[in-house]
Design goal:
This protein is an alpha/beta fold. The protein has one domain: Response regulator (Rossmann fold), CATH 3.40.50.2300. 40% of the residues lie in helices and 14% in strands. It has 6 helices and 4 strands. It has a 4-stranded parallel β-sheet with strand order 2-1-3-4, with helices on both faces. The chain is globular, with a radius of gyration of 14 Å. 41% of the residues are buried. It binds 4-nitrophenyl phosphate (4NP). 4-nitrophenyl phosphate binds next to loops. The site of 4-nitrophenyl phosphate has 10 residues, from loops.
Length: 155
Amino acid sequence: MTKTRILTVCLGNICRSPLAKGILDSLVDPEEVVVDSAGTGDYHIGDPPDERSVEVAKKNGLDITDQRGRQFKTDDFVRYDFILAMDNYNYEDIVSLASNEQDKDKVKLILNYAIPGENLDVPDPYFGGTSGFDDVYAMLTKACRNFVDKELKNG
Ligand code: 4NP
């Protein structure tokens, strides 16, 4: 069976998208689904996730320490079925690299799975405090659960 491939994308690939990958990994069967994460920026290539993301993940029973930052590349349109953008900037940056409608259709704003049709951003917690990371974790958990129910279980 061909695995479904999901890529979570934020700006730095150290705060939001590693958390989204960790949450999705905890919800899917690795025999059926592959999850990776990337950043639209090149600031943190090769870096581990931000320690505040590592901490909030750990508090919720997830280990994301093995992830390393990498930059989104156009080849990801070929390799992934779903590309989940954390905010509208990420969404526009990714879509601007799409070469056809099929690629563009793969890109989804992740919070539309939690609050449909609102096009809301997962706020970037990088410059904020720890509470920002708890909020981000809660919204990503809801969005990822709904994503799995909608796109992976009913299809
Ligand atoms: P992320 O947060 O996009 O959720 O990983 C950021 C992390 C680092 C930077 C920006 C956003 N930065 O500019 O270094």
